[in-house]
Write a structure and sequence with these properties.
The chain is α/β, with parallel strands linked by helices. It has one domain: 3-Layer(aba) Sandwich (Rossmann fold). The protein contains eight helices and seven strands, in the order βαβαβαβαβαβαααβ. The protein has a seven-stranded parallel sheet with strand order 3-2-1-4-5-6-7, with helices on both faces. α1 crosses α8 and α4 packs parallel to α5. It is globular.
């Protein structure tokens, strides 16, 4: 779908060197936005940038780990210099430092990094970009997880962070309305065409999360998992003026899979 309202707008997508983030960047670039992608890896970021340049020349890359607040500030500053503000912020590609693991099998040392690595990389970019979003108003879309809504073995911390993102989405939407900034989130389940998919199924299939998600992959009503491109369509839709009266909401993109855990 084409959206005319992204022309001359600045979009910052964090964690966008692959997967859903890169798919969002491609769609926004194709719709006329000036797109700045972010990644912790300069090499991966430059490779993604080359893909974007086949779509538009109004694209750029800035390296930085948005799980570090000072780095997130620098990323936002870089994006805002292009046109005096940020109109769209999409937070994607957050990788946790601890894989899905049953709670009893996690060490005490695992708990803090498992939580912080997933939460702060979603919170920090919003706070860092807020001064620039306030210039013209805009839209924030945060990618979260359906583990927040459905009890899933091995995802106690992941689900807790996801639940925090859902509530934060509501509160920020309420607070930011005064500046004409909408905040929504997308709750993902197992999604193909993403780095997480490759990590889960690319290590021999005998690890805990490969077995866990292998069962899930067989339960999608459509016969397959959602793709990164399909999730990106929803994120771009939420960032567009087509959803001008939608804020504080979390949309699950799960192929109709409403599971209660297993």
């Amino acid at each position: 779908m084409q959206y005319a309202d992204f022309e001359n707008k600045v979009a910052l997508i964090t964690g966008a060197s692959g997967g859903v983030g890169l798919s969002v960047a491609k769609k926004l670039a194709a719709n006329g936005a000036t797109v700045i992608i972010n990644s912790r890896s300069p090499e991966n970021g430059r490779q993604a940038l080359e893909q974007l340049r086949s779509i538009s020349q109004k694209v750029d890359f800035v390296a930085g780990d948005c799980g570090d607040y000072a780095a997130a500030v620098k990323v936002a500053e870089y994006a805002a210099r292009i046109n005096g503000g940020i109109d769209v912020l999409v937070i994607a590609g957050v990788r946790g430092k601890v894989r899905p693991t049953p709670f009893a099998e996690m060490s005490g040392a695992d708990l803090v990094p498992a939580f912080e690595s997933r939460l702060f990389a979603r919170i920090f970019p919003v706070h860092a970009a807020l001064p620039y979003l306030r210039v013209r108003g805009g839209a924030v879309v945060i990618l979260g997880t359906d583990a927040a809504r459905h009890a899933t073995s091995g995802e106690s911390i992941i689900g807790a962070v996801g639940a925090a993102v859902i509530l934060m989405t509501k509160v920020l939407a309420k607070e930011f309305a005064r500046w004409n900034i909408r905040v929504n989130s997308v709750a993902l389940t197992l999604t193909s065409g993403t780095p997480s998919w490759d990590r889960i199924f690319g290590v021999g299939g005998d690890n805990f999360d490969a077995k866990l998600f292998g069962k899930l992959a067989q339960r999608f009503p459509w016969g397959r998992a959602p793709t990164a491109d399909e999730v990106a369509r929803v994120a771009v839709f939420l960032a567009s003026s087509e959803t001008a009266q939608v804020t504080g909401q979390t949309i699950s993109v799960n192929g109709g899979l409403s599971f209660g855990g297993w």
